[in-house]
């Protein structure tokens, strides 16, 4: 199975900050990586698929990059509604696996 | 408007079975794969099972393989998760998810609100 490791597990940031979250796969997954946002008490929401494709309706301040085993989610200018937990997921092969999550907190 | 409504959760004793249902609307269900993803209280996301549009491609997470079965009934616009030999480790909020189209069937692009399963004696 492919293991997904996210870092950091939490980050404190201020509105307007640039935030970067990293996800590493235990083996090559090409560009088959998705990112989800989850707010407390809510279902997750797809942000990005295939490493860098923005889901419809997701603000352009979110972007994704990477390939192979190393991937990044960047929020260019953090907004109040972006405080949440973010998960990466490899969509290369079954069983699909998620990273452990990164909680973005208010500094 | 896409909607996914899960049901069937509840309190069940260890070793017993439970069937979760997910009714979909707002899209052509027969064209899309579907998934179940769970989240234990205070924990991260765990993919449970997925099924493609015609049931020709199924997959399971390691922790449920051999105990859980995913199925679908396109005529009823429904997806099911049959769960056997339940243990306390299966206690979680179970989300039904709509997959992306075609090669993106392993991406969950829309999530229901979940149904809670608690396994306890």
What is this structure, in a nutshell?
The complex is a heterodimer of chains A (107) and B (121). With 107 residues, chain A is an all-beta fold.
Question: Would you mind describing this structure in some detail?
Answer:
The complex is a heterodimer of chains A (107) and B (121). Chain A has 107 residues and is mainly β. Chain A contains no helices and 11 strands. In chain A, strands 2, 4, 5, 6, 9, 10 and 11 form a 7-stranded mixed beta sheet that branches. In chain A, strands 1-3-8-7 form a 4-stranded antiparallel beta sheet, with no helix packed on it. In chain A, strand 9 (85-90) and strand 10 (97-98) form a beta hairpin. Chain A is globular, with a radius of gyration of 13 Å. The N and C termini of chain A lie far apart (36 Å). The model of chain A has no long low-confidence stretch (mean pLDDT 97). By secondary structure, chain B is mainly beta. Chain B is 0% helix and 50% strand. Chain B contains no helices and 11 strands. Chain B has strands at 3-7, 10-12, 18-25, 34-39, 45-51, 58-60, 68-73, 78-83, 92-99, 108-111, 115-119. The model of chain B has no long low-confidence stretch (mean pLDDT 96). In chain B, the strands form 2 sheets. In chain B, strands 2, 4, 5, 6, 9, 10 and 11 form a 7-stranded mixed beta sheet that branches. Classes of the chains: A mainly beta (107), B mainly beta (121). At the A-B interface, strand 4, strand 5 and strand 10 of A face strand 5 and strand 10 of B.
């Amino acid at each position: 199975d492919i293991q997904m490791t996210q870092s950091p597990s939490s980050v404190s940031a201020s509105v307007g900050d640039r935030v970067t979250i990293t996800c590493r796969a235990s083996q090559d997954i090409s560009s088959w990586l998705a990112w989800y946002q989850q707010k407390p008490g809510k279902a997750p929401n797809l942000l990005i698929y295939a490493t860098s494709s923005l889901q419809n309706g997701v603000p352009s301040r979110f972007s994704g990059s990477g390939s192979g085993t190393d991937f990044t989610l960047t929020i260019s200018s953090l907004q109040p509604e972006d405080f949440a937990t973010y998960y990466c997921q490899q969509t290369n092969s079954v069983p699909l696996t998620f990273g452990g999550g990164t909680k973005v907190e208010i500094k | 408007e896409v909607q996914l409504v899960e049901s069937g959760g509840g309190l069940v004793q260890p070793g017993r079975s439970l069937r979760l249902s997910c009714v979909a609307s707002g899209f052509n269900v027969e064209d899309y794969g579907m998934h179940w993803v769970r989240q234990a209280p205070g924990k991260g996301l765990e993919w449970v099972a997925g099924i493609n549009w015609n049931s020709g491609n199924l997959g399971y997470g390691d922790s449920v393989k051999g105990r859980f079965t995913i199925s679908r009934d396109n005529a009823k616009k429904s997806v099911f998760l049959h769960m056997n030999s339940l243990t306390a480790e299966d206690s979680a909020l179970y989300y039904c998810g709509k997959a992306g189209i075609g090669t993106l069937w392993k991406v969950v692009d829309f999530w229901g609100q979940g149904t809670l399963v608690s396994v306890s004696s």
